[in-house]
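Lecture notes, part 5. Sequence design as translation. It can be helpful to think of inverse folding as translation between two languages: the language of shapes and the language of residues. The source text, in structure tokens, appears below.
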């Protein structure tokens, strides 16, 4: 039977070792009947279409192409579909599939006919299929339209299965040159109509002969991407929520030794309000451990188990995971070590663990995890090695290190900082920090997010999620390996992400509104202030207290941090609580003050000569500060305390939400982070209203694409291979010749100052005559580029005699024309030399960079970065962010340069890279910015073939 309405989906990220049908083997590896390749399987199995996906309810599934080996799975799947769903699919009663149907639905050429399936526990739960058609709706090998149809088992409808399939089949179709889908749906099939209409694609809809006819273009739109991101957010948040709120928990690997990890985990679950089970394969029947009945296998447990904590030895983990999958467990916390942190073989075991769990619909915390905590009094959970469940509070904590996790829990307990939830995920092979950010955005109990990160799995996604979260809740991060760039054992990252430059990380954080600190102490100091106090309206600080020295130290710390402190108000060591109250009220009421720092030492008058008590508190201090804290909250101004030799006062103030710090630097550092965060919030809100990506004249995208297509079609004799994971790694990247680079840039209104080769003296003279004097003579050999200090440049040559003399000097000094590769270039106006670059980082995305040429950028690293596409506000802030920026604005009486032209050039480069994903990098150096206009003297452009999948592709879980 010919299928009038195709059905089956696609997948997203390439996966070298993705989970496959029986026994985890790839469908492509399975033998066809008789060992023959079917006639219509004309294309190799597209393994990169396989993907693990999160569904709406937080469960996992696998999307992969259907193969001939799936015949039995397809028949079994179809038998589980209701008669109504079958009728909706085929527009007629169709109780069973014939042999011909089965063959047609399992044999595809992966070009004109493609079928995808959603697989859970090695069983199909949904399929989608497309068939390429011509404009008349007939099968075609060259058309750009395709008919698409879905079938989802009734038990799995409402989980977002069809929506995920649509994303993947659309990406597959685009890869195969299909630009539009058509579908016919019965009006009664409202769920499927909603899948199409909610997807966000540009659609056309009609109704004829009792059937709804839908057409939609597959080119992603802002709406379709927004829909995709919203679904991703809901699914990932829900998956974490399921881990934190299980109805029942089982611990696998509970030893009879009280000192064992399994016993500790079981003890720590004592406060859990639902059923708790223990599993020990050698326990005699009727055994109880920690008062919990013990089973020899998880499959012996009669009731449901939502969360399993695995502490068995590493060789026993696969069997434990298999039992969890068979029992319907939703999530795993794998405390067991011995995976990627041990080397390549361990990494393979880790990948196999994740594949096995996801194939059964389960998410994984770990392996090598410390565990997770939920302090919700309605659903408390301590599925970790922490002996005590922390107090309830506003902080969400995430870390990738068990040792740091212990330190964080101890420090928050000591400070009286309660937490909402906590996760220490070890090797973070599956559930990552990005998932927790998605959850905390929705969690009303979490007000401040504190992260300890050692590596990024997907920096681009982190930036996208963190930026959205930081718009409502502060995100504070300690990022390890700032200077070494080393990757902790066991952390899987994309090839290019492992070497992510720290300056790039800083740029990501700044643009996303994430506050980066250097130490765990700073993390908690900043978090405490942000949770307890309002955000400051500016950077003007009043310092009030009873110690002149402590006030001056605080004042100096503010200046050093870039704040604007007022002269400290010294109340003298004899100050009373009433003195504090009046001074604080005055400072808070001053409209020229945005924040107040109180400094306090024990009142000298309170000490006796016989028994001095340097820790004595003046109760009046606490009363005055508490009253001031209430007033500060009303005015929206933060109030914090710096103290020395006081023991009780800090704890009293923390109870009423006033953070106290034992050193001025700690208080000022925390306040500075709050100032920066508040400023980012304001600027972001303004940018949403005013920032734009300007439209420029002289933009010829079609012409630029033609140049790139021609260059990629012409293979050079030899081109350097791109590192694994980089853009175009499947092929080669190549550098455009200078004339082609100039032509490409001209398509975007970027003019490079003309340059002519001068292989000999006479050629140089002719070039100068063609360009017009004055000219410059420059060496362009790789070892001499941008090295005027070596004598490789001669400027302001106004005539033939001077040019000939300069040419001979260059030739004699640097070793001949062949070695020097001299060129003649028309002189540009004098100005400030700058450098502009744009680079596509596989893990981060496209990054726009700016600095001043020479020592500032090369020696001092004075370069600023922004993510592409950049707005006009991004460009303006970019050139002002570098430390050498005053040179652009008239430093020491110089004439300011044309920063408007500079900002326009930055935006044009951003537009070029954003429009043309094949562009791997653009380097403009130097760009001479004059008082009026600018000149691009040299340009280098590299291009590369597009990767198979990008961050704009369908939702898919990481397969690292």
């Amino acid at each position: 039977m010919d299928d009038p309405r195709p059905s089956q989906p696609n997948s997203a990220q390439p996966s070298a070792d993705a989970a496959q049908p029986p026994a985890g083997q790839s469908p492509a590896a399975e033998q066809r009947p008789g060992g023959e390749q079917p006639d219509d399987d004309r294309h190799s199995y597209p393994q990169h279409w396989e993907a693990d996906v999160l569904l709406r309810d937080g469960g996992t599934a696998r999307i992969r192409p259907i193969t001939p080996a799936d015949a039995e799975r397809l028949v079994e799947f179809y038998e589980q579909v209701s008669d109504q769903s079958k009728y909706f699919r085929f527009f007629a009663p169709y109780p069973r599939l014939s042999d011909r149907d089965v063959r047609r639905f399992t044999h595809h050429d992966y070009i004109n006919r493609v079928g995808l399936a959603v697989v859970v526990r090695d069983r199909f739960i949904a399929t989608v299929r497309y068939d390429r058609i011509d404009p008349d709706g007939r099968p075609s090998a060259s058309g750009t339209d395709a008919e698409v149809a879905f079938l989802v088992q009734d038990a799995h409808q409402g989980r977002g299965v069809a929506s995920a399939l649509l994303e993947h089949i659309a990406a597959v179709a685009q890869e195969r040159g299909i630009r539009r889908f058509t579908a016919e749906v019965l009006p009664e099939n409202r769920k499927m109509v909603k899948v199409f209409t909610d997807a966000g694609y540009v659609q056309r809809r009609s109704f004829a002969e009792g059937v709804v006819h839908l057409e939609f273009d597959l080119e992603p739109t802002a709406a379709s991407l927004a829909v995709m991101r919203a679904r991703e957010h809901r699914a990932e948040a829900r998956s974490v929520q399921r881990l934190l709120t299980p109805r029942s928990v089982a611990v696998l690997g509970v030893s009879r030794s009280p000192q064992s990890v399994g016993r500790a985990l079981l003890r720590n679950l004592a406060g859990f309000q639902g059923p708790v089970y223990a599993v020990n394969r050698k326990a005699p029947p009727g055994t109880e451990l920690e008062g919990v009945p013990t089973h020899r296998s998880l499959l012996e447990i009669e009731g449901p188990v939502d969360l399993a904590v695995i502490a068995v030895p590493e060789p026993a983990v696969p069997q434990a995971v298999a039992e969890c999958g068979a029992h319907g467990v939703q999530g795993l916390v794998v405390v067991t070590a011995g995976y990627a942190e041990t080397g390549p073989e361990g990494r393979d075991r880790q990948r196999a663990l994740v594949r096995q769990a996801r194939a059964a619909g389960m998410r994984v915390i770990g392996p090598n995890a410390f565990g997770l905590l939920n302090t919700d009094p309605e659903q408390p959970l301590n599925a970790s090695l922490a002996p005590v469940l922390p107090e309830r509070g506003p902080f969400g904590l995430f870390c990738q290190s068990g040792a740091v996790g212990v330190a964080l829990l101890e420090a928050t307990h000591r400070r009286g900082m309660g937490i909402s939830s906590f996760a220490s995920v070890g090797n973070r092979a599956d559930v990552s920090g990005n998932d927790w950010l998605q959850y905390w955005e929705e969690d009303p109990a979490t007000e401040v997010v504190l992260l300890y990160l050692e590596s990024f799995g997907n920096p681009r996604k982190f930036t996208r999620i963190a930026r959205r979260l930081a718009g409502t809740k502060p995100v504070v991060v300690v990022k390890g390996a700032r200077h070494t760039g080393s990757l902790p054992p066991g952390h899987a990252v994309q090839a290019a992400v492992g070497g992510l430059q720290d300056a790039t990380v800083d740029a990501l954080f700044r643009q996303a509104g994430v506050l980066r600190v250097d130490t765990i102490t700073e993390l908690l100091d900043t978090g405490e202030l942000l949770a307890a106090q309002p955000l400051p309206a500016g950077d003007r600080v009043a310092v009030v207290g009873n110690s002149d020295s402590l006030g001056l130290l605080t004042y100096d710390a503010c200046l050093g941090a870039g704040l604007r402190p007022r002269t400290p108000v010294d109340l003298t060591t004899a100050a009373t609580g009433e003195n504090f109250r009046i001074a604080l009220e005055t400072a808070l009421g001053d409209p020229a003050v945005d924040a107040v720092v109180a400094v306090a030492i024990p009142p000298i008058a309170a000490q006796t000569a016989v028994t001095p008590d340097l820790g004595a508190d003046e109760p009046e201090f606490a009363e005055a500060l508490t009253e001031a804290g209430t007033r500060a909250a009303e005015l929206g101004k933060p109030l914090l305390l710096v103290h020395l030799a006081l023991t009780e006062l800090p704890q009293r103030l923390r109870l009423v939400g006033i953070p106290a710090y034992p050193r001025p630097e700690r208080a000022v550092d925390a306040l500075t982070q709050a100032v920066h965060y508040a400023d980012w919030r304001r600027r972001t809100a303004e940018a949403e209203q005013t920032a734009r990506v300007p439209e420029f004249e002289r933009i010829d995208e079609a012409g630029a694409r033609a140049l790139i297509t021609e260059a990629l079609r012409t293979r050079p004799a030899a081109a350097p291979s791109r590192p694994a994971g980089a853009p175009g790694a499947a092929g080669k990247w190549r550098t455009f010749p200078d004339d082609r680079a100039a032509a490409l840039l001209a398509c975007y209104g970027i003019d490079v100052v003309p340059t002519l080769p001068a292989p000999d003296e006479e050629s140089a003279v002719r070039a100068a005559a063609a360009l017009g004097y004055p000219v410059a003579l420059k060496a362009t050999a790789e070892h001499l580029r941008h090295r005027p200090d070596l004598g490789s440049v001669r400027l302001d040559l106004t005539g033939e005699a001077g040019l000939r003399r300069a040419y001979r000097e260059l030739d004699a000094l640097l070793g001949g024309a062949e070695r020097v590769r001299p060129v003649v270039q028309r002189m540009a106006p004098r100005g400030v030399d700058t450098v502009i670059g744009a680079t596509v980082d596989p893990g981060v995305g496209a990054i726009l960079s700016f600095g001043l040429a020479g020592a500032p950028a090369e020696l001092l690293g004075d370069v600023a970065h922004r993510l592409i596409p950049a707005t006009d506000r991004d460009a303006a802030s970019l050139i002002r962010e570098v430390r050498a920026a005053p040179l652009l604005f008239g430093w020491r009486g110089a004439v300011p340069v044309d920063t408007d032209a500079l900002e326009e050039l930055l935006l044009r480069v951003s537009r070029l890279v954003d429009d043309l994903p094949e562009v791997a990098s653009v380097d403009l150096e130097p760009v001479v910015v004059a008082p009026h206009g600018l000149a691009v003297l040299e340009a280098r452009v590299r291009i590369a073939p597009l990767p198979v999948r990008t961050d704009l592709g369908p939702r898919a879980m990481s397969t690292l």
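The translated text above is only one of many valid answers, since several sequences can fold into similar shapes. The first helix runs from residue 71 to 79.
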